[in-house]
Fold these 4 entries.
Entry 1:
Amino acid sequence: MTAEALILDGNVVAADIKEKLLERIQGLAEQAIVPCLATILVGEDPSSATYVRMKGNACKRLGIESIRIDLPTETTTEQLIETIHKLNADPKVHGILLQHPVPEQIDERAAFEAIAIEKDVDGVTALGFAQNAFGYADFPSCTPAAIVAILDYYKIPVEGKHAVVIGRSPILGKPVSLMLLNKNATVTTCHSKTENLEDVVRLGDIIVAAVGKPKFIQGDWIKPGAVVLDAGYNKGNVGDVDYDRCLEKASAITPVPAGVGPVTIATLLKHTVDAAEKVAKRKSID
Amino acid sequence: MTAEALILDGNVVAADIKEKLLERIQGLAEQAIVPCLATILVGEDPSSATYVRMKGNACKRLGIESIRIDLPTETTTEQLIETIHKLNADPKVHGILLQHPVPEQIDERAAFEAIAIEKDVDGVTALGFAQNAFGYADFPSCTPAAIVAILDYYKIPVEGKHAVVIGRSPILGKPVSLMLLNKNATVTTCHSKTENLEDVVRLGDIIVAAVGKPKFIQGDWIKPGAVVLDAGYNKGNVGDVDYDRCLEKASAITPVPAGVGPVTIATLLKHTVDAAEKVAKRKSID
């Protein structure tokens, strides 16, 4: 029907981001600084454990130190916050990532807010969110930033286009909506209460799926020629988009796996190096 | 054509908000607390001066103290921030309002950020913005909160509806978009770079005009039966909406004047009383 869709290869974008980090990590090494990311995993959710392991491995391959902190499922909010405060105070640690979701007895928002803004490499604090919304955050949330990085890498026009975001979470749907708005897209944010969702999705020149439901976005919801970005990652390695059907309609599309996921991890590494460089800069001024 | 539009009378909504404040102000008086709003006006912009005067008068009529601070046009960012810090430290002051726009040599964002969160009754700080975006702010920006108050007062259904916001400023377009999203509307945010603006506006069941251009929104841009909220206030007492033409198409509409404006002021008074009550509560716990 339409010409063949461009596959937006996340591995290519991630490799480009990481490539550019190597020299910077080298530069930090010359100042005896090793960028260091601390990840906190509470409980034993197997997919969360996999993510944390992938992030740790990605750090290692690039020469970024990673500290992994595993806390038991029954951890309280207070105990988690105490752990975060220790990492805030540790000069060796440049970035802190609290893997979510956390077990339900924990006040996730309170835990996120405990992260010091200069170590909030996943942009989860309220202040980080607002700075991103206003367009001057050091560390926008990694998945939204990855989506923007893919659009940038493949030079997909955003200004004036109609972007439809499905999802409104504080770390994905809302920040990616605001980032696309700041890139001069007209932005519609949809969610579970949206009436006539198909018709709304059909408005989109750019579609961001951030629902957390496997193959939720159907091929016939997509305007021919739309650009489809799938931020979902569900059991069985499937995204939020019915890839095969959407592929027939889209002008460009991210696969799952090897789409947004690897770019999210690369963005996390980049933010950790950014944070380490800021520390280096402060040191050199002192 | 359509049945006659309901006029969303801001004076009625404002009177309702103020009515409910009287008893609370009385209750504070019994604890020897007088709610107090400090307004800062930098320079001599005549409309800004009018707004500040209106706010001061509204305070007086209700028994809220208002302190007005006038700073010269050539005030620096540092001088303005120093003034704000003094007000932050003054236990008599419960709310701080920096009238904007400020003269161009001032870093407005830096000045806003200097306001202590517990006195940020107009929701201008980044933290206040994010708390509002996440749905738990004490003080959402007053104009967005006024728009929501009008919808609530007139029991206009929002959930599932398509709201179109024209404007994306940090204190109006963005926060009202997020508030409507949190009330379960599907929200589209438009701006100067939006392509085919008329078609996008025509999608809206609820339209919020926050453009700052007189009579910008045309009658034939409006879907028949839409609800139109005009947050604009331009020279000659006209809003951002071509009221007469939109009146013919809308099911409900705010006039200008006597629409969003008076509710914004009533919301500011309410936030000041809220802030004073929080201080009273802390005192009673001490």
Entry 2:
Amino acid sequence: MEELRNGERAVLKELERIIEYEFTDKKLLFTALCHTSYANEMNQINRAIESNERLEFLGDAVIELLVCETLYKEFPESSEGEMSQVKSAVASEETLSEIAKKIRLGHFLFLGKGEEKTGGRTRNSILADTLEAIAAALYLDGGFQTVKNVLKKYLDNYILDYISGKKIFDYKTKLQELTQELFKCLPKYKTVENQRGFTSQVIINGTVYGIGQGISKKEAEKIAAEKAVKLILNSREV
Amino acid sequence: MEELRNGERAVLKELERIIEYEFTDKKLLFTALCHTSYANEMNQINRAIESNERLEFLGDAVIELLVCETLYKEFPESSEGEMSQVKSAVASEETLSEIAKKIRLGHFLFLGKGEEKTGGRTRNSILADTLEAIAAALYLDGGFQTVKNVLKKYLDNYILDYISGKKIFDYKTKLQELTQELFKCLPKYKTVENQRGFTSQVIINGTVYGIGQGISKKEAEKIAAEKAVKLILNSREV
């Protein structure tokens, strides 16, 4: 990669101040902040820049390990099932984008012009992905302890809220809330028994929003509700 | 937890020799080898023993990070999509149970009598889960570098095979092979377009084995095939 420009260096410096960590390899941090749309735009003017997609892939695993380790060590009474539910909730786009907003990550993103115009700077999926890329950059630059030093305090609040039940990851309830808010009606479940157990469809205003398979009616409905919730939340962002 | 028995200590020692790592905390290794069925049996005779389920949860994240880091660092040309596919294939039950067999993990398991009778010692799901628990025990006892020292060489072979295309993770092809072998016929796909894109059913001998949702017909079929493959492989083991 080519040298960083002065304006870019200034952006990195400001973010380093907020996360209280100074990168040895500034280009790692820069790459973590480069959305595909920016990399594409730069490549068109022959500036070789990598997007943050590969870092995001690594960072997803880094954050998951941090969450799993915290749950394992600090909540010894929690079962595998509970830990697994909390992990999904904490390592989700919803949570990670909230943390990204706390460190004002949107402000530091490098975006292409098109993405900028359509509100990419505040889009949850982009913010969550970039936070993952930042986690990977921290990991590669300073090791796992550095990731812990910078990100654990943010994740811990969510872990505690989910473990203590302050936050809800009951998808059937969540779907009900969303449906009432957005469609002014309640979701309906249509569940049939078959060779694989039960198949459940969640129907909102006549449209199937999620299909779930499970060994019980309850499980099939829960899975269908989860899919519907994710579909609705994702489509709201785009 | 109570003290380890002499017979148990001997088992641990033999496994330590094979993996070429000596645990500081022997109880961690012991817990990693204790299947739920053994923990339940011991609890019934008032011996307080924890099963390996919580370690397995942590170990899943440890192995994923090891695979992701290897892909990121050693295959800089691989895209996020490729890395993601290879990660799923390598961190799968199929691969992890193969590695478990290479270190003869089945031989060292602590199983309840019922599980022993029904062939638990050779069951892929149990072997893969135990390998994950071992990864967590290594992580807690010696840190991430210890996990690397012990497990990376095994995982690397699979990573290389998948990246180079020697091993196949094309689920539609895999399903075709399985269906011909087990049902002497080919799978059929029934795909319909709907509000969410496409929904595809894989039908074998008149029975639905998997349902997939996708933004294209191809994607919906691929997901349906993946679900069917997993369903068939899981039901063969039980």
Entry 3:
Amino acid sequence: MARFMDVHRGMQGITADQLMEAHKADLAIENEEGVHFEHAWADPESGLVYCLSEAPSPEAVQRIHERTGHRADEIHPMPLSV
Amino acid sequence: MARFMDVHRGMQGITADQLMEAHKADLAIENEEGVHFEHAWADPESGLVYCLSEAPSPEAVQRIHERTGHRADEIHPMPLSV
């Protein structure tokens, strides 16, 4: 398992409810790929969304995000953290 | 207080010790600007570092990062989180 930060762009206008619904949709199927989405942060003005996850691979993260309708624009491994 | 995600680029080769030292340097003076750095994540291969903070403004975040020698390339407010 590794940690990943993924980035979604173009989400201008996202609401707290929409972020929660998207996160819940990911959580509902994440175990099918061995992924766990830990947190997500969003800025409705810039349209940026960041998601922090633990997963076996970036492809596993992307498969969950694609199935729930919000493909990530970037997925970065984050092997170091404090 | 608001939450911010800041991004540092070009940190290729950063080690766990260097990330910890940079984070400790920020923590040592953060209260002078009313900032709290909650977490940081780094990828030595891509050179990306993300820092999550609570702060009164993006300028306050940048002032701490500048004084500790690692100016952020981007600082994004993150008003929504799950």
Entry 4:
Amino acid sequence: MVFDPWSVVTVLFFCHAAIPAFKNRIISRCCCRIALIRRMSGCIAHMTVLKQLIPRSNSVWKPAVRCVSQSAHRKLLPDDYDYDGPHLVTQVPGPRSKMLLESLDSIQNTEAVQFFCDFKKSRGNWLVDADGNRLLDVYSQIASLPLGYNHPAIVSALADESNLSAFANRPALGVLPPVDFPDTLQKLLSRVAPPGLSQVQTMACGTCANENAFKAVFFWYRAKQRGSLIHTEEELESCMRHEAPGSPNLSILGFKGGFHGRTIGCSSSSHAAPLHKVDVPALDWPSAPFPATKYPLDVNTQENRQEEERCLDKVFQLMQEYKNKGRPVAGVVVEPIQSEGGDRHASNNFFRQLRKLAKENGSAFVVDEVQTGAGLTGKMWAHEYWGLEESPDIVTFSKKMVIGGLYFKEEFRPKGPFRIMNTWLGDPAKLVIMEAVLNVIHKDRLLDNMTETGQVILQGLEKLQDKHADILSNARGRGAFCAVDFPDTLTRDRAVATLRNKGVQGAGCGVKSLRVRPALIFQPHHARMFLDIMEETTRELKSLGT
Amino acid sequence: MVFDPWSVVTVLFFCHAAIPAFKNRIISRCCCRIALIRRMSGCIAHMTVLKQLIPRSNSVWKPAVRCVSQSAHRKLLPDDYDYDGPHLVTQVPGPRSKMLLESLDSIQNTEAVQFFCDFKKSRGNWLVDADGNRLLDVYSQIASLPLGYNHPAIVSALADESNLSAFANRPALGVLPPVDFPDTLQKLLSRVAPPGLSQVQTMACGTCANENAFKAVFFWYRAKQRGSLIHTEEELESCMRHEAPGSPNLSILGFKGGFHGRTIGCSSSSHAAPLHKVDVPALDWPSAPFPATKYPLDVNTQENRQEEERCLDKVFQLMQEYKNKGRPVAGVVVEPIQSEGGDRHASNNFFRQLRKLAKENGSAFVVDEVQTGAGLTGKMWAHEYWGLEESPDIVTFSKKMVIGGLYFKEEFRPKGPFRIMNTWLGDPAKLVIMEAVLNVIHKDRLLDNMTETGQVILQGLEKLQDKHADILSNARGRGAFCAVDFPDTLTRDRAVATLRNKGVQGAGCGVKSLRVRPALIFQPHHARMFLDIMEETTRELKSLGT
């Protein structure tokens, strides 16, 4: 049997116009046929008509006009996951968000809350808030949502009964792992491992990933110093008094502007903002300047090279200084792009030199890919752009990877039981979702999508800054991991609020930057919507005399 | 229409005996009716016959004889979640576990792995391993599984479509919480809050809960010292160089034998075992002796009181010492029962005095209930036994609470945005499971169950140690949170291995203790099975001349 989509449209149209009382019933019966027709017809434009006839209880759906009808693009999601634009019915945050904020504020600090989200109604790149506003999301929950909202592949993995047990029984992975754990790790994490790193350890979040990366560095460094894997009695006894040699005076070198988390170890290696650090005791660990490069990097090569050399010299000096004061640099930790610190980029050569410097100093080289990893830059791992002669020693991940963890070289594998350990060590439930995510990244070529979309974003931002040089500067990016600067913090914060009330959910980073961190399903047509609203926002800021 | 269960049994019996070829088909058709009959008849004994007729693909089910038929007890789980005893088909770990271990070992250290678990086949208190061995679980995944394996209430919450969105969209809770978040926190976490603590902050795990509790303590202490909530320019600037006053010289006082996690801050407050600490840099934080009490506590009151006073004096001295050296004790952290450190108990009076001492010194009083909380001791929070005049300032939780976090007084609420923060700040998916758990705890009176079962365990262990005083000593417990000592580490480790191969999954803690940490659905009849196998194990250890 073959359906003629046009005849169904005609029938539905008449039902809609002439017999309202029977409309819903007839439409409901027709729905399954319509679904079939959608797949069969391939005639996307006609489906817009059908869609408008189908009643939706939720007002957010009503003004929807699918994007696909207006510009052709690669189809990554079902039709009803996309729209021609944002839809605003109140200010953001609206009255319902404000009411919920008051309620939440009675039991915890809410000063960082932007608004409340209705995740049941959110789809793809579109975040719906508590008041029914639909925003184009270029922030993806602090860069942590890989496939946007309610991706069909994730929903389908959750509905699969064979995955139920992973959600119902959270194991202590380090002592009693599930039968499918070795296979799952190999199939998922080893498949996307950074080149050269054969070992992997899951963790619950990025902070624990970094804290444990540092521990692996200290274990490795002390074993080198000691010349043995076996601890001495003196070490085992002195560590209980927090004295050397058991509690060694070792350090991790971080960078000014770097960010690796907010626990005491992570915070001691981070220097992105005083409010992350003030009041919290810190370890005496060195921080080197990160190159204050000029953008575009490839235009300002000579000047940037000098600046990068200055920073590398300072790294070298700090290594000597901390060695001399008996607190040698056991490891260097760096982000491929300083993210919280304000989207600060350096050249591939800078990172190659830094890697060499770490090696020459006998320090481990740890790359924190918590925010840059999992494809947003157009490669699975941002450090793959560097062309390193020798791979990093440890790469940490979380956010868009769904689960936290660290990849590492075999020589960084801890010796003895219970050295890198906590109760859960991650969560197999998150591996179920990660499997769906990695399959979609592969099947839908989302790394290519990020490269392609990133070009649209970056070129768009560059054009905007040419037109509005008094407001915008330093457009920069790798893949869709992009940013642009405003003149100061106040203007940037105004821009974020204005964007939000024009239907774009973005966020700041550093002192005066706007960061773009969409989900991996963010496409060129979304980028163009974002750029249009950026331009409107810029004009509005200018008209207000900002 | 009314079913007569006996007639169905008769029909099934004839089918089973006479027409094997049609058996499965008929049984399959009857299954839905049988389910109905089960609910209707209430005639549990007859169902055993039905159950034996239903073919199961998994051999683990075959030798099952429901426990209910043999001893009457309160029914907490469906019939097919319980058995008369363990079922062993290989050594544990068996050949399949060993094969899986080899595979996992190629990508990470596996020295702490005991065996691999088949969570799909595990039910209630019964853990099934990769080789089909069925063990009575008194360890519950390092004390972290609240309702055992595949509890129907959890399975049902997972199957509920209205919960799907919480699993498909993990939000950044601190900036973009879901619409139901305030209500969920109030309905769940506030409902079971420790008395006096109105505020709550979720976290992903116990380690992050403790690290952030310490941060909240430092914020509060510095605001007191400064006499203002506003940071000075000097603080904001000096913290970036890791210098006072921005990076203050403050300390957390922990106890020898205490354990609060393995990140650098947590590790600096923990003193349970050298292998947790060696090679990792530590902060100069004091550790006081924890009372080496004699058991039973209520028999050795005089001697214990002296020991406790000695420890309290030492706490006082350390507070003075650290004040004098410019590193004052901003907070004291203590577990109600030292868990990893070897199940060490102190009297209620000790904790009341400690709380007073903290208050008098101007230090915050933090109670780490990560392992003791959520009902195992017979109360929701173990510190409720103490009869404190003033509640703790902060109580941390994780493990059986499904999600990590901290309860705290309003005065410990951080001021300003982004002070207690990370990307996820917990996980609404875990709150869905927690809701099911808290409902079951309430509906099935599981706190009472822990008190009742705990009495059976403790009295049983006391009897055993009376009979085998050369092997067992120091039986102790609160609710079902129990332990007993062996003469030394070697014998304890042998006991754990022997128990496992007799069908009990337990674990050690401290130097020579065996800890009992069942799920909240562990009942007196399970306790008796455990005690029988403990006795067998003890006899075997003695016969081997241990």
